[in-house]
Amino acid sequence: MTTSKTISPKVYPISLKFHTDLIFVGYFNLRGWKEVANKIDSFTGVDDNKCRLLVGMHKHPEEFLREYFSSEGSNEIDNQKANNLRKDLAKKFREQLTIGVPSEEDELGLRKLSTQIKQSKVVVKLFLKHTLHAKLYLTFRNDKINPVIGFVGSSNLTLAGLAKQGELNVDVLEQDAAIKLSKWFEDRWNDRWCIDISKELAEIIDTSWASEQPYLPYHIYLKIAYHLSREARSGLSEFQIPKVFKNELLEFQQKAVLIAAHHLNKRDGVIIGDVVGLGKTITACALAKIFEDDFYLETLIICPKNITEMWEKYVHKYQLRAKVMSISVAQTELQKLRRYRIIIIDESHNLRNREGKRYRAIKEYIGLNASKVILLSATPYNKSYSDLSNQLRLFIDDDADLGQSPENFIREIGGKVEFVAKYQYSERTLLAFEKSDYSDDWRELMRLYLVRRTRSFIKENYSIDDPVKNVSTYCLVMVVVLIFRIVSLKK
Prior knowledge:
- There is one protein chain.
- By secondary structure, the protein is α/β, with parallel strands linked by helices.
- The protein has helices at residues 37-40, 61-69, 79-96, 104-118, 159-164, 175-189, 198-206, 217-228, 230-238, 243-246, 251-267, 280-295, 308-317, 330-333, 357-369, 386-392, 407-413, 416-423, 430-433, 439-446, 455-462, 473-490, and strands spanning 20-25, 51-55, 122-127, 136-140, 148-153, 169-172, 194-196, 269-272, 299-303, 322-326, 342-346, 372-376, 450-451, 465-466, 471-472.
């Protein structure tokens, strides 16, 4: 082959492949591909006329550090580890597409990547032998002066690496150095533990929201319902109703207990906000019984003085390992009390003022004993959203990561960067939600902590009309609930 003046006449270990690109990056964000996608369209996909992308950083830095200092096992790669890493990376790529709000630009960029993979214009491999954090871009072209151009530096194939922030990169025009970089790339591309994941990536895109295949509205509805009901489904499968309550609870009450058990176990607190008459008390008793049986925890019940006798009867009837305390003496008595890991607070809307002495005494006890909290209130929200946040503050710290942020409020003030710059704390905290007056923000947050059903909900979902007797089982359910409450209070 004829070399240019800048290339030494010696024979190089690899041949130049014109009209091709080689890319080696530590991290690859699928949506970052749109920044380079149009440059790849000119390739034919035949022979070496394509773009080869090699991904080397398949672990987070923290995970790599733990493995480095771990004395257990070996870091040597084998077929099983390679297969596990391949599955793990596919999962991470799939999760990438669940972050953020999809845009039309993202959709078109992802579709183009899938098409280019199928046309063999792009081949993506994962280097598994060991972790590599290199960033190398090489392009080959018909040019007498610089047939090979390399770029090395800090730009990953991500939106941040290519467009969103300043990166330091150096172009390599000296041909001897550029070809040595090519050799370095080829050695890793042809390594035994370099695995082609092109088909997996195309499948991930084709089964995501970026797919070119239109979905029926009904299928989209089912998908939404599936994800929105994830918390409820987890509770229904995770816990079981105690035997003593199986014949005591109606179907809608059993569902409430199991969903509340999931919230309580996962987030250390739950608000049972069913409207008056639907059985919040017996629901809370069954919930406490689950954690007594499964985790050997004892319960402290804090309630208004006028219903302490009712609670004592429930404790005796269902053999709860529990103590009943009037909220009027909580301020002085809690500091003398031993540790209870489950706290039931009836009429919790009375604790809306976090500056009150009772509030602070109860919050301090919960914090010192790491207690899980069950709040009961038919009116958890009265005048402002601070009513909700103050009740949640009983078991949630100000800086706790809720896994949820007030998206509408954040969008209003200009985005997450603006929010953090203005308020100097994470957008995924209770403090952040207290800045928002958007009902949708609070609705999304309370979905994680609140179990609330209304009479209309029970009627629509648990009643069956009897055409012969012309009566709804909802009416019978309400009668049974009322009779049960009267009998319980008289016993």
